[in-house]
Amino acid sequence: MPTGTIFALANQKGGVGKTTTAINVGAYLAAQGSKVLLVDIDPQANATSSLGINKNHLPLSIYDSLIRGLPLARVILPTPWLHLDLAPSAPLLAGARVELTRLPARERLLRLALRPLEGRYDYIIIDPPPSLGLLTVNALVAARDVIIPVQCEYLSLEGLTHLLHTIGLVRRALNPGLHLFGLVMTMYDARTNLARQVVEEVRRHFSEKVFRTIIPRSVRLSEAPSYGEPISIYAPRSAGALAYEALTREILERVSARETKVVNKERVV
Question: Can you state the angle between helices 154-173 and 193-206, rounded to 10 degrees?
Fold first, then answer.
C-alpha cells in the first residue's frame, strides 16, 4: 500500500460536489483499512460540519497551523469512523487569505505543516475553497495529485480552462511533481440531454483522465451532511453510496497501476 499519497480536490466553482467527493472517498478508503486524513482548508468548513463537528466551537483548527505555526498533529481530530481523521477548518480561516500574503513561503505553508505527518497516513485528502486563491494554491503545492470534480452542467466546462491553467502554473513554479490524477463527473441527471452532452464533451477532451464512475444527483447525498455522516454510513445502499464506493475502487486501481509502473521501471534500470 502506498504511503502518504496526497490528493487535492480542486474546482473554483462552488456547488460541484467537491467537498462531498472529498468526504466520501476518504470514508470509503478508511473503511477498506487505509489510514486517512481529511484536511479542510475551506473557510466555510463544510467538510468539518459534514462529519458532525461544530465548526464554531473548536479549540484549534487548521488556521492555527497555517497562521500561528502550531504543529498540525495538535489540530487533528479523530472522527467516529475508524482510520479517518480530520484537520478541521473554522470561519476564522476566512481572514487567512489576507494574513497569508504577509507570511514568508506563503504558498508552501500547508506542505510544511503536513511534512511531519509523513508515514502516518496512507492517504491525505485536501478540501480547499472553491476559488483559485492562496488557500487553493497551498493545496496544490502540498499535493501530489489533483482530482477535479466536474458538475454535469455547461458552465462547469468554462471554468476548467482557468483551473487547468492554474494547475500548470503551480506545476511549473512551485510543485513540479503535481499530477492531474483524474476528473470525476458529478451531480449527473440521466433525464437531461445536457448532462449526457457534458460528459461526452469532457471525455472527448480528457479521455482516460475521466473516471468511468459518474456520481448521480442524489437526495441522500444532499441529506447526509445534515446528519454528520458520510454516505457510506447514512445510506450505504443508495445510488450515491454505490457510486462513491465504485469511484474509490477506481482511485485505488489507478494508484496501484502507477506504483506497479514505478516498480517495473526501477527493475529495468
Answer: 30
Give the three cell numbers for residue 253.
486501481
Do 66 and 89 contact (CB within 8 A), yes or no?
no
Quote the CA–CA distance of 234 and 156 in Å, as a whole number: 28
Burial of residue 208, with CB atoms counted within 10 A of its CB: 0-12 exposed, 13-18 middle, 19 or more buried: exposed
Whole-model pTM: value is: 0.94
Q: What is the CATH number of domain 5-268?
A: 3.40.50.300
C-alpha cell at 175: 510543485
Mean pLDDT of 121-138: 95
Amino acid type, 201: E
Contact indicator for 242, 231 with CB cutoff of 8 Å: no
Up-side HSE of residue 255: CA atoms within 13 Å toward CB?
A: 20
Query: Residue 57 CA to chain centroid, in angstroms?
Result: 24
